[in-house]
Design a protein that fits this description.
Elements lengths: L2 H15 L8 H17 L4 H14 L4 H21 L3 H41 L8 H19 L15 H8 L8 H25 L8 H33 L14 H15 L3 E8 L2 H8 L1 H18 L5 E4 L4 E6 L4 H16 L3 E3 L2 E3 L3 E8 L12 H17 L7
Length: 419
């Protein structure tokens, strides 16, 4: 076997497939791959250290575990083809044993880095939850983040005695779900979905315990990483559902504008800050939009206060029917409204606001034997904490001004637009 040729071909292919690696890391990655190839051929004791070095570089360059192992398994195929061609049975068996070690070393490093990142993220999430005002149900999410942290610690220490509560009905959130949640969660399907997700979370913990009960050299670190990734996703889902539930109750309690029935604008700072912190705690984005009834002023000037007041009220009723109960509709200006969509991205917002725009376009108001119609222009921004945080902290007016610029763009483009 021409080792230099194998190294050159494989390394060039690897670097080409992972072209997002930083320039200063390319030579280091190339040297690490070269070392691992030599370790494989010589069954060297340096294999673990070289696998750790390569894993750290790929983690830093955001190369997923599955991608790295796919590349290394391609190298395995190269070796196998040569061994088969030369009927090298012993080398083939040894190669299989070496690759079991390689996957273990790489998976363990990826798991360690993932757990560090998860612990750091959970600190941020808990910090965000402590800033919420007037929220009740999200506290159960906070308790489950603490539960998840115990799960992280048990794996990091390989200590089953550090495991959190395994029985879903005995943790605080599980008890609430089984006893009090039915009176609060609107539909049976939503309640059942939360129950199932929560039970799944505890089932994963039991599977993790099975791994921790094994001898250390028998633990499957790749499976543990998969379990923890699933646990984090389920935890975020629970947090999002509880945030939506809290939003519904917050909206009911907040003071309303007497004319339109929308939330009064003096609650903007508090509600926006809550949405920001909730998005940070659940690793999600949210939408802030400004909506303008395009010819509401003309209707007011022509038919008087009562006509425009009726139109504003009808718009809010239409918006409530189109949007979710957890979405915030706020009177912002004479004929303008702020709408906040929790746990939404630009794609979902564009679809929802265009639906609202079309419903309003087809609506007509009978007023004093006249038919009044209006259209809707919308400007919105997607907010993804913490990347969107400004130097002066959570500044709602920064985002309001951005949405207003989008609204102006929609109006300049002929009104009845979503931008």
């Amino acid at each position: 076997m021409d080792i230099d040729e194998v190294i050159e071909d494989f390394v060039d292919g690897f670097l080409y497939s992972n072209s997002n690696a930083q320039e200063e890391h390319l030579d280091i990655i190339k040297n690490s791959l070269t070392d691992i190839i030599k370790d494989i051929l010589n069954n060297s004791d340096s294999l673990e250290g070289d696998c750790i070095k390569l894993s750290k570089l790929n983690i830093y360059n955001e190369v997923p575990f599955t991608v790295l192992m796919s590349e290394l398994n391609y190298l395995k195929k190269i070796f196998l083809s040569v061994f088969i061609e030369n009927s090298a049975i012993q080398e083939m068996l040894l190669l299989h044993e070496i690759y079991i070690k390689i996957e273990k070393y790489v998976a363990k490093q990826y798991l360690d880095e993932y757990l560090k990142k998860l612990s750091k993220n959970n600190i941020v999430r808990l910090h965000s939850l402590h800033h919420l005002i007037g929220m009740e149900f999200i506290n159960y999410y906070e308790q489950h983040i603490v539960w998840l942290n115990s799960l992280v610690e048990s794996i990091r220490c390989l200590d089953k005695d550090k495991m959190p509560e395994l029985e879903s009905s005995l943790c605080v959130f599980g008890y609430w779900l089984l006893n009090n949640a039915k009176d609060i969660i609107k539909t049976d399907s939503e309640h059942k979905n939360l129950l199932n997700r929560h039970e799944r979370l505890h089932n994963i913990a039991r599977l993790i315990l099975k791994q921790l009960n094994k001898n250390e050299d028998e633990i499957d670190y790749h499976i543990l990483m998969t379990y923890m990734e699933s646990s984090e996703l389920i935890s975020l889902f629970i947090g999002t559902e509880l945030a939506l539930l809290d939003n519904c109750h917050m909206i009911q309690k907040t003071k309303k504008d007497k004319v339109s029935g929308a939330i009064k604008s003096d609650s903007l700072n508090m509600l926006f800050t809550n949405q920001y912190e909730l998005s940070l705690a659940t690793n999600s984005s949210f939408i802030l939009a400004i909506c303008d009834l395009d010819n509401c002023k003309n209707i007011h000037d022509t038919y008087g206060d009562s006509s425009s007041d009726r139109l504003l009220k009808e718009f809010v009723n239409i918006a409530k029917n189109v949007l979710r109960n957890s979405d915030i509709i706020m009177r912002y200006d004479t004929e303008k409204f702020i709408i906040i969509l929790l746990n939404s991205d630009s794609h979902a917002a564009d679809k929802k606001f265009n639906e609202l725009r079309m419903v309003l376009e087809n609506f007509s108001l009978n007023y004093q034997e006249k038919t009044l119609k209006t259209t809707l222009s919308v400007g919105y921004v997607e907010i993804k904490p913490p990347n969107d945080i400004s130097d002066d902290g959570i500044n709602v007016m920064r985002y309001v001004k951005s949405a207003e610029r989008k609204l102006l763009e929609a109006q300049m483009d002929g009104e009845n637009q979503v931008v």
